[in-house]
Design a protein that fits this description.
alpha/beta, BirA Bifunctional Protein, domain 2, nine-stranded mixed sheet, three-stranded mixed sheet, 6 helices, 25% helix
Length: 284
Amino acid sequence: MFVGSTTGAHVYGLSLCMDPTHPMSTRINCSGGDTSQPADKITIMDKHRNTILLKPGRVRYQIALDWQFCAAQAVRNREVSGCLALLEHPAVYTMGARGGRTNLLVNSERLHQFGADVVDVDRGGDITFHGPGQLVAYPIIRLADYGLGPSDYVHLLEQVLIDTVAEFGVLGTTMPGRPGVWVGPNKLAAIGVRVQKGVTRHGVALNVHNDLSWFGSIIPCGLPDGGTTSLSLLLNQTVNLPDVEDCAIRAMARQFGMSFVGPLFSELVDPRGLISEVNIDDTY
């Protein structure tokens, strides 16, 4: 598991491992140290405005959360331009900054028995669920590089999601005061972010072919009058997650003006170690 501190200018002993039950699982060690990097490497990443793209498969929530802190520190120190992780989580309920325990309809111990974790996090929003078949995207970027404020960023993420599902013939919409993407009264994608010292963490979750019955144990996002849906349910057929990932990458590139390096299909690692490993010319 993740061990260490992200305070100051050092990250010590980052050990990130994926869900061992997943066929793409791997254990990797990202040892930290002095966060300073040679100037030529920083210049390369800034010049090309490349975002490191990671597609590690299914990753335990706490591991991905720890990675976000590590990646945010690297972006904040201008060691990399940005990172985007596209992944799935095993079953987990997360409580945002507004709390959410009151919207948890089943005892957390009971949920553990069903195989779901319950985690308190510092993102915006209330309670939500992540699980297999749901596409989760974590953009780690410096908002000032894009001339964005937090509200602009959320609206742009909504447009990314709308563009993504439009490629499957689904018309997603937004609702004032209710971040995310909706189809009628049902939420198709959730957004919950945290901006700290100008750098983003957390992100979006798009229901693709996940089991929606898990949402029955909560009041999703604290909205008793809102339901949930998925791409597969709307289209009455199974939608493949890799196809949705490709659409999401294109939408991120279009809306944010990003280009990408990667992807590294089976690793979720400290991005500082990737600068010399990726081909800067291999962009998306």
